[in-house]
Amino acid sequence: MADTLAMLLPFVDRSDSRGGLSIIEEGAGLPFPVRRAYWVYATAPAISRGFHAHRQLRQICFCVAGSVRMQLFDGRKEESVQLKPGMGGLMLPPMLWHEMHDFSPDCVLTVLADAEYDESDYIRDRDQFIRYVHSS
Ligand code: TYD
User: Fold this and answer.
1) Domain annotation covers residue 1
2) C-alpha distances out from residue 128 to 35, 52, 106, 122, 135, Å
3) Considering its fold, how many domains does the chain have in total?
4) Quick count: other Cβ atoms within 10 Å of Cβ 63?
5) Using CA atoms, how far apart are residues 107 and 104, in angstroms rounded to an integer?
6) Does a structural domain hold residue 80?
7) Would the CB of 39 count as within 6 Å of ligand 1?
8) What is the DSSP string of 51-95?
9) Which residue's CA is the closest to the ligand 1 atom numbered 5?
10) What is the pLDDT of residues 43-57, one digit of tens each?
11) Does residue 69 fall inside a structural domain?
């Protein structure tokens, strides 16, 4: 098992005195071909999201504005990481339970995924997730 659940993928940074510029590019560090992108924004106050794991899907999450706290659980170990612009992308491998908490009002959370949306890839029951992890 990795030491940390929160593997951060560094982005190429071309920030200068004018401001920030971060880059992720196929062939230059992107670990999979992107098949889908989506973003979470204008999150209502006190809302948390996620509460699922994926059987196969790989994703990279990063904040382009604001901040959010990602709560991760691999079935054994729990970890929390605060995402903000400029800190790279959080890798979400398959079979990692994730929750998103404490969205700042200006948070824009972008997600790159290696497959199209497929509801059958989701595990939305935490107890079922724990059973899967411990039986494999
Ligand atoms: P969901 O992944 O459950 O959001 P969250 O985990 O942040 O609460 O998605 C919310 C709804 O949007 C759900 O009905 C599925 C749908 N959806 C798509 O149709 N395509 C997508 O790419 C995503 C991410 C969600």
Assistant:
1) no
2) 27, 10, 34, 11, 11
3) 1
4) 25
5) 5
6) yes
7) no
8) EEEESS--EEEEEEES-EEEEEE-SS-EEEEEE-TTS-EEEE-TT
9) 50
10) 999 999 999 999 999
11) yes
pLDDT digits (tens, 9 = 90+) for 73-93: 999 999 999 999 988 999 999
Domain with 107, as residue range(s), is 7-135
52 is known as an active-site residue: yes
User: Do 134 and 53 touch, CB atoms closer than 8 A?
Assistant: no
pTM more than 0.85: yes
Contact yes or no for 116/35 (Cβ under 8 A): yes
| Residue of minimum CA distance from atom 16 in ligand 1 | 117
Q: Is 41 within a domain?
A: yes
Which amino acid belongs to residue 17? S
Q: Is the CB of 38 under 6 A from ligand 1?
A: yes
Ligand 1 centroid distance, CA of 17 (Å): 37
Residue nearest to atom 9 of ligand 1 (CA): 50
